[in-house]
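Good morning N.,

You mentioned wanting to compare the apo and holo forms, so I went ahead and generated the holo version with 6-O-phosphono-beta-D-fructofuranose. This is what I fed in:
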Amino acid sequence: MQATVDKKIKRIALLTSGGDAPGMNAAIRSVVLAAHHYHVEVVGYYHGYNGLVCSENITESKVLTLDDVNSIIHQGGTILKSARCPQMLEVEGLKLAANTLENESIDALIVIGGDGSFNGLIALQKYWSGQVVGIPGTIDNDVDNTDYTIGFATAVNTGIEAVDKIRDTADAFERIFIVELMGRHSGHITFNVGIACAAEQVLSFENFSEGSKQEKLLHLSTEIKAAQKNRHDSYIIVIAENLWQGGATQLAKELKQQAGVECTACVLGHIQRGGSPVAKDRLLATKMGVAAVQALIAKKSNVMVAEKNNAMNFVPLEQAIKHHKLVSMQLIDAQQNILALTAQTQC
Ligand code: F6P
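and this is what came out, ligand included:
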């Protein structure tokens, strides 16, 4: 339920949690600037929720000044550091976090992170009565009810740059590559990068889940062989991490062993999390940071800031975490149609 509270806020706590995402710094800057405008102090807590949970009265925090957020909009990572915090899954950890917020006279907490971080916010409210707002920041783009999450656009661009480079070598050597992309359990990055790079195959949870392992290997090797029958060309398969047991490296091994198809595996990994945020992420982060502070001033609580059709929205946290956002059917269809058309032109 979306809640409203009566008290005027004076001190906001801010932290970044879970996998860092390019644009988190832009969001931190925006929160601090907007809060300054409303004469509200922002206390930054370090290392995700760990900064709140620290025991023995040692917490990791700092009042964030305008100077602290000067010249950070273009930096990847997060000046507040980030981490996952298993203690927030335990009552003891939640109580420690609540005590910190209470003892340090915090009126409201803003968390920049993904759905796991929002679960922490929901649970914390059982032990702490301050206002809470979430800002969706994750490269995975899997948070529901917002068109995009902070960091996704940059991660896709990074993936595109990398695959384009791999294409040069694949073309020069007329070689098959399997490139593994991040996304935890969703294919937003894989589909977007794959389509934008004209990958010959996009393998993700949304389109590669049916059939046994043997059937999948047979299907894949048949497609590769058919495509290469009359042409000597590059062939790029992008694959979502966690889709194939053992990842791209293992898939390449099995294609070689079981179908005689020689592939080179390349795991992009954390390169996708870093780097200077692209314009889209800087702008999204800036809008969301301001909206988060304004939500608190307007006495909203238990909401996630979201962007829908270019407008800022507020979604109850429970609704935001209910489902993972699915890859759009349009994108999946587009990929299938392109594949079919490409196959036809090769006949
Ligand atoms: O959630 C962001 C993300 O980069 C996922 O895409 C990936 O599965 C996971 O984090 C990796 O986590 P870690 O950095 O802890 O290995």
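The CA atoms of residues 16 and 112 lie 5 Å apart.

Happy to go through it together on a call whenever suits you.

Best,
F.
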